[in-house]
Amino acid sequence: MVAEGKMTSESEKTSEKIPENSKSDDKTEDIIPEKQALNPTPDKQHAMVMEKSVGLFSAVALIVGTMIGSGIFISPKGVLIGGGSVALSLIIWFLCGLLATLGSLCYAELGAAIPKSGGEYAYLIHTFAASHPTWGPVPAFLFAWLAMFVIRPGMVSIMVMSLGTYASKPFYGDCEPPVVVVKLITITVLVFIAFINATSVKFATKIQNVLTITKIAAIIIITVGGFYYMAIGKVDFISEGFLDTSVNPSDIALGFYNGLWAYDGWNNLNFVTEELKDPFKNLPRAIMIGIPTVTFCYILVNIGYFTVMSKEEILMSNAVAVVWGKKVLGVMAWIMPVFVVLSCFGAANGSLFSSGRLNLVVARGGHLVKALSFIHAKRRTPIPSIIFTTVVGIFLIMVFELGNLIEFFSFTAWIFHGLTCLCVIILRRTQKDLRRPYRVPIFVPVLVILGSIYLIVTPIILNPRIEFLYAFMFVISGLLVYFPFIHYKLRFPYINEITEVVQKILLIAPIHAE
């Protein structure tokens, strides 16, 4: 797909296959040079392709399902800490939804013009790679580097860690569940989700569709409960308005971090574009349906929270939905932990689904070991990529705490969200003839870029944290990997033999653009 900084246009065929000689004709070399691949069906009729099994409903479900995860049940506390007041907290929730919507519109233009899986990686390589032989591919590689080891595994890890916490909480009453129990549950669930995604694309998307409906049911319960309290005149908490509003820009930015975590996943559909049916129409449609729906739901849910619970109750709880359920549902309060667990499971499933495709595309572009670009010969699923993301996720689960991982993730992610939206502006100037089935007004990427700068710079200046230093250190480490292994193409001995053994064990084969 990506070779020497060039991308195929949307008019070219996007199906991919094994060449008849079983060897890669990809001109881009990577860390692991490609060995002769397994090729059980070399004829063109049986060419290896990523199955186009994601329709409009599944695409909307993927967006909604990955966005509505643990965030809406955990983040209200962090947003309230940052905003200080009920009114400003609701404004932050709305602005987070607006920023996610504007960002998704930029991604829709890029995704329609560059209909390739890989999300930010595909757009960064298309925009910058040809500009300079040495530094041009660096933005895409740094995104891939951070996405592989921080952003994508971190997203999945946060979701399953939240699931582990809520799943174990009912068994320990008022006590906090032991960390080892939470992490064992978390790792078990992550491995199970990986098995589902490695087994069948259709099964993974069906689970996503079903659990998305379950999440909407949870949203409806909280919303209806909140409006019922308003109808009977219990509006003391929500009527506090702007009382205790924060005026500290750093606190507000950290409030945005928590809110944006709840919205994260809005770009997941761009990672599976090659499996999307009619991507030119369904990509922008799914975005315009999915993200405003989530924003509307989040506003209603927070109104439901603030109608039933005081600010003090929210600030003292790490599981806002559980406390809400105890106050409103009585003996049926057990429903809320169940909904939270199902919500986290669905979000983690969708995130791992899209993360596996990202690693596949990055490896195919020469920025990862080539074996990660292979798919199963029969199931057509990116098994090596899924295994890689799962292993990194398990490491993050074992090493990090949930709160630190959220801040580390959000700070890193918005560096590249802003940089990707900058691609819209650059491509408008450098590739004016590029066919764009969907275009956004130029002020849209400008607003997203300004928002990203605020989110990145303000906390560093006013409230520096060790997590921000970790992010920059990881960027530097990416450069240390890029120059010897990518730019100068340093190779490891016996890697061809290792790749061949992995192919035989996993029954995987490479795919290449026609």
UniProtKB/TrEMBL annotation:
Amino acid composition bias (Basic and acidic residues), ranges on this chain: 7-33
Q: Where is this region: Disordered?
A: 1-43
Q: Name one GO cellular component term.
A: apical plasma membrane
Q: Where are the transmembrane segments?
A: 54-74, 86-108, 142-167, 179-198, 210-231, 286-308, 328-348, 383-402, 408-428, 440-462, 468-486
Q: Which chemical reaction does it catalyze?
A: L-leucine(out) + L-arginine(in) = L-leucine(in) + L-arginine(out); L-lysine(out) + L-arginine(in) = L-lysine(in) + L-arginine(out); L-histidine(out) + L-arginine(in) = L-histidine(in) + L-arginine(out); L-cystine(out) + L-arginine(in) = L-cystine(in) + L-arginine(out)
Which terms in the Gene Ontology molecular function aspect does this entry carry? Answer: L-amino acid transmembrane transporter activity
- The protein depicted here goes by the name b(0,+)-type amino acid transporter 1
Q: How does it sit in the membrane?
A: Multi-pass membrane protein
Stored Pfam families: AA_permease_2 (PF13520)
Keywords annotated in UniProt: Cell membrane, Disulfide bond, Membrane, Phosphoprotein, Transmembrane, Transmembrane helix, Transport
Q: For this UniProt entry, which residues form the secretion signal?
A: none
User: What compartments host this protein?
Assistant: Apical cell membrane
Protein origin, superkingdom? Eukaryota
* Chief subcellular location: membrane
Assigned protein family: Belongs to the amino acid-polyamine-organocation (APC) superfamily.
User: Would the keyword Plastid turn up in this protein's UniProt record?
Assistant: no
The species this protein was found in: Octopus vulgaris (Common octopus)
